[in-house]
Design brief:
- By secondary structure, the protein is mainly beta.
- It has one helix and eleven strands; from the N terminus they run βββββββββαββ.
- The protein has one helix at about 100-110; strands at about 5, 10-15, 20-25, 35-40, 45-50, 60, 70-75, 80-85, 90-100, 120, 125-130.
- Strands 2, 4, 5, 6, 9, 10 and 11 form a seven-stranded mixed β-sheet that branches. Strands 1-3-8-7 form a four-stranded antiparallel β-sheet, with no helix packed on it.
């Protein structure tokens, strides 16, 4: 059974930081790209970042460049999203998802509307709330 378990969300003040984790199981971790997406209240789901587990290539949405860092630990089948200098507009439910197509995922990371069918597997989200 494929599972993607996102965790690490919480309440933080503006300027603070959080680290999200996405633990994967049930598929070949090294053959997939893991992406982070988010959905704020009343808004469409959008891309945040992604990492190609086979070669480490990464991509970021412009809104998080320089503040967020994605990384992967293949020994733990886990992808991390380090979020620094958080802003109230970063408040959202954050989801991790997997795809076997890195280029496709890069396109999604810069897309303001991401549909569930756009990725192969999705995890349940974790809520990040940034207070001003």
């Amino acid at each position: 059974e494929v599972q993607l378990q996102a965790s690490g969300g919480g309440l933080v003040q503006a300027g603070g930081f959080l680290r999200l984790s996405c633990e994967a199981s049930g598929f070949s971790f090294g053959d997939y790209t893991i992406g982070w997406f988010r959905q704020a209240p009343g808004k469409e789901r959008e891309g945040v970042s992604c990492i190609n587990n086979s070669d480490g290539r990464v991509a970021y949405a412009d809104s998080v460049k320089g503040r967020f860092t994605i990384s992967s630990d293949s020994s733990k089948n886990t992808v991390y999203l380090q979020m620094n200098s958080l802003k109230p507009e970063d408040t959202a439910v954050y989801y991790c998802a997997a795809s076997d197509d890195f280029i496709h995922t890069i396109v999604l990371v810069t897309t303001p509307l991401v549909r569930v069918l756009d990725m192969d597997y999705w995890g349940k989200g974790t809520l990040v709330t940034v207070s001003s």
